[in-house]
Amino acid sequence: MKQEKPMGDTPSGQQDGMTAPLQPDSGAGRLEEEALVKVRGVYKVFHRGSEAIHVLDNLSLEIEGGEFLALMGPSGSGKSTLLNLIGGLDRPSRGSVIVGGDRIDRLADRRLAAWRARHAGLVFQFYNLLPVLTAERNVELPLLLTPLTRAQRKRHVALALKVVGLSHRARHYPRQMSGGEQQRTGIARAIVTDPTLLLCDEPTGDLDRKSGDEILDLLQALNRQHGKTIVMVTHDPHAAARASRVVYLDKGRLSAEKPE
């Protein structure tokens, strides 16, 4: 992501041994000549006893840096499986997944876990917050895998919560927050390390329309103002309309148009 001057409250000169989170992006030069994500000839087969379940079938896809991509399709079409492959949460049965020049499907488990912690920010439908931790502690969790000091982690957490509009909720527990606020906390947790990719699996699926629209507004701002590359799985055409590009999956293959 293009690095410019930090946002208003970012401590001057903050580097903290990693990229300072959420640098603003003017939009100029956001798309790289080389695609950020390259999925090539990917097959994914799951086995249930003696039965082989073919989920992805020779699928290829490229995603540019700074793009906001929506993945749509019926249940069982392979959307979440594809998202998991791009985020290093799973490996293809055949084919390759390259992100930022890294062939992540070939990384050893430890190296893949380290890659995932640094490069993939995950946003889930049901938030996945730890109920015994406050918002700021939930957001801090990914930073515990980094060499940052406690003071440095605190600065990163404060900035991430400010970006999602939850500075005033930092010390509240999930049970004290609305669904929309819990999802904002989940997004803050996903962006706190300034990951290469923000991967969202039905991020508005458990929210009412008003709360869902607020989350979509936030995702658009992260994409347009901070240049975050976002891949979002959704069943909702209203949510998909916020993306800069929509691709459809049908029976494990990409489709140029929405399946019937």
Brief sketch in words of this structure:
This protein has 260 residues and is an alpha/beta fold. Helices cover 28% and strands 23% of the residues.
CATH superfamily of the domain at 65-94 and 110-255: P-loop containing nucleotide triphosphate hydrolases
Give the CATH class of the domain at 65-94 and 110-255: Alpha Beta
The biggest beta sheet is recorded as:
6 strands, mixed
- Global morphology: globular
What is the rounded distance between the termini? 37 Å
CATH architecture of the domain at 65-94 and 110-255: 3-Layer(aba) Sandwich
Poorly predicted ranges (pLDDT <50, ≥5 residues)? 1-19, 26-32
Structural class: alpha/beta
Percent strand equals: 15-25%
Rg over CA atoms: 18 Å
Instruction: Bin the helical content.
Output: 25-40%
The total beta strand count reads 10
Strand order of the largest sheet: 6-7-8-3-9-10
H-E string: EEEHEEHEHHHEHEHEE
Written overview of the protein:
The chain has 260 residues and is an alpha/beta fold. It has a domain at 65-94 and 110-255: P-loop containing nucleotide triphosphate hydrolases (Rossmann fold, 3-Layer(aba) Sandwich). Helix content is 28%, strand content 23%. It is built from 7 helices and 10 strands. It has helices at residues 79-86, 109-119, 135-140, 150-163, 179-191, 209-226, 237-240; strands at residues 37-48, 51-63, 68-72, 94-99, 102-103, 120-123, 197-201, 229-233, 245-250, 253-255. It has a 6-stranded mixed sheet. It has a 4-stranded antiparallel sheet with strand order 2-1-4-5. A hairpin with a 2-residue loop joins strand 4 (94-99) and strand 5 (102-103). Helix 4 (150-163) packs across helix 5 (179-191). The longest helix has 18 residues, at 209-226. The termini are far apart. 41% of the residues are buried.
